[in-house]
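DM from R.C. (forwarded with permission)

"hey, sorry to bug you on a friday — could you get me a structure for this? deadline for the figure draft is monday and I only need the backbone to look sensible"
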Amino acid sequence: IVVAVRCVVRTSIGGFGLDDWNMVIGQVLFFGTCVCVMYGCNTGIGVRDIYLTAHELVNARHAILMFQCFYLTSLIFVKSSICFALLRITTNKGIRIFLYIIIFLSFCCGFITMVACLSLCVPVSASWTGIGKCVAPLVIKRVAIYTTVSSMVTDFSCSILPFVILWNLQMDKKLKFTIAAILSLGFLASAATVVRAFYFNRFLASVDYVWGFSDLMIWSIIEDLIAITIGSVPSLKPLF
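My reply, with the result:
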């Protein structure tokens, strides 16, 4: 809803820009992420192996791989949208360069991780069927660590930079405090990334993998959802 209202507001004032396009794409991909979660939950994600048939296990693992692809690409565009929005309101050269670096890192992190996920098994279908050859569990753990650390860096940067920019803006103190309060919720997205790090070993499980992955899904969804909401709310300012 907040993204739809954002689009209406930006279009009505003739200010629909690159940040809005990125958020729309991120939202569409987030819908895909949610579809994968719903399908996965209906096929066995969150359920222990002994209660699932072989067919359900295959479908659940397939849903997990699709979830990872949609989630990673969604987060790329959502973070880029936040950075492009900040580029609108700052003229500080150092901050602008740093924002472009975050955008670059977000794309690199998401793309590299997605390629890695699709390359862990040969053929790709072996990721969910188990028929084929897959890399050692240690490689999977390293990919998970790389993804989480990269996400932490970009998440905390996107959470802290708005305050740095806001501090130097000339505006009503009450409005500045309100915006700061809203933006502070962005740290919840960063916290979700940190919490997800405690579930690294779930990537290595040979038994109850689809059961354990449910927690990773939950915290990933929370991170993406908060980022979309916080990244869109400031755009609704003309309504108030």
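R.C.: lifesaver. DSSP finds nine helices and two strands in the chain.
me: no worries. The two ends are 17 Å apart (CA to CA).
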